[in-house]
Design goal:
50% of the residues lie in helices and 5% in strands. It has 80 residues and is mainly alpha-helical. The chain has a single domain, classed as Orthogonal Bundle (Recoverin, domain 1). The structure holds calcium ion (2 copies).
Length: 80
């Protein structure tokens, strides 16, 4: 019983860690630290350039955090 609860708790913590890591990745992607992602910076994210036209809602050539939040990673499986 207790062991099962511990396992569930650990799984939750692991999920939280993944989310935290993803948030940090977002920051790391913004190489010039201007708070938005340029097309050049977006190239570091697989699949992001393909969705650029959809994501850049105000067409200013930059993805702000709100626009980037709409990006969904669909290329989780390696192409081989
Ligand atoms: Ca930037
Ligand atoms: Ca934009």
């Amino acid at each position: 019983m207790t062991k099962k609860i511990m396992t569930l708790l650990f799984a939750s913590l692991a999920a939280a860690a993944v989310i935290a890591a993803e948030s940090q990745t977002d920051v790391a992607l913004d190489t010039d630290n201007n708070g938005t992602l340029s097309r050049e910076e977006a190239k570091a994210v697989p699949g992001l350039s393909e969705q650029w036209e959809t994501l850049d809602a105000n067409k200013d050539g930059q993805l702000d955090p709100a626009e980037f939040a709409k990006f969904e990673v669909v290329t989780t499986t390696p192409a081989n």
